[in-house]
Write a structure and sequence with these properties.
The chain is mainly α. The chain contains four helices and two strands, in the order H-E-H-E-H-H. The protein folds into two domains: about 50 residues, no CATH class; about 40 residues. The protein is globular, with a radius of gyration of 15 Å. The protein starts with a helix and ends with a helix. This is Gag-Pol polyprotein.
Length: about 90
């Protein structure tokens, strides 16, 4: 997924419903390190934090949440798997 699409989805579907977070925690992946995201963090005064490298315990909560979300989406999208993104808004 491109940074622009991810940023738009965060603002339109997450931040607009749940409010602006004070911080975003990511693993060591670089998905949320683009210039666009740096500007988004600055604009909304969001602190970007990373989990400690080589410490899988820190990623456990995220991985569990992702697994739960994927299971929920696969069940909700069983009739039309290509429309999973429409079900995502109802599940987050």
């Amino acid at each position: 997924m491109e940074a622009v699409t991810t940023a738009n989805d965060l603002v339109d579907h997450v931040f607009s419903r749940m409010g602006m977070p004070e911080e975003i925690v990511t693993d060591q992946g670089r998905t949320f390190d683009s210039q666009l995201f740096k500007e988004l963090y600055w604009l909304f005064k969001i602190q970007k934090l990373r989990t400690t490298p080589y410490r899988p315990q820190a990623n456990g909560q995220f991985k569990r949440m992702n697994r739960t979300l994927l299971t929920t989406l696969s069940i909700a999208s069983a009739d039309d798997p290509f429309q999973w993104n429409q079900n995502l808004q109802l599940r987050v």
